[in-house]
Amino acid sequence: MKIDKTLIHSYPFTIRPLSEEDGGGFAIEYPDLPGCISDGDTPEEAIKNGYDAVKSYLLSCAKHGDPIPKPSEASGQWRQRVPRSLHARLVARARQEGVSLNTLVTAMIAEGLGKRRAS
């Protein structure tokens, strides 16, 4: 059986560093595919190896007649309640920068994630 490459690449994953005790490198896990885990010396290698793991997982499902799980999709939205004082500060900052509140908060989150990844 052949598995569509587009399907293999559509499953969301998480990557995390492995401790030296665990061999170092990076682990990749697929929440939509229980037990589908791989690793690699670099994040790029973990992703490449992860795609092989997904392919094997899906082939095993097909071979055993198990349903192939559908990849979950993020909606791209959530609702967040914040204190009124924080909301007011964010609205003022968005006005000051000439952008919408959504654009400002998205940029702040992206910047924060980038800083976190760099450290």
Describe this protein's structure:
This protein is mainly alpha-helical and about 120 residues long. The chain has 2 domains: about 5-65, Double Stranded RNA Binding Domain (2-Layer Sandwich); about 85-119, no CATH class. Helix content is about 50%, strand content about 10%. It contains 4 helices and 3 strands, in the order H-E-E-E-H-H-H. It has a 3-stranded antiparallel beta sheet with strand order 1-2-3, covered by helices on one side. A hairpin with an 8-residue loop joins strand 1 and strand 2 (about 25-30). Helix 3 crosses helix 4 (about 100-119). The radius of gyration is 20 Å and the shape is elongated.
In short:
This protein is mainly alpha-helical and 119 residues long. It has helices at 5-8, 43-64, 84-97, 101-118; strands spanning 14-17, 26-29, 37-40. It has 2 domains: 5-64, Double Stranded RNA Binding Domain; 84-118, no CATH class.
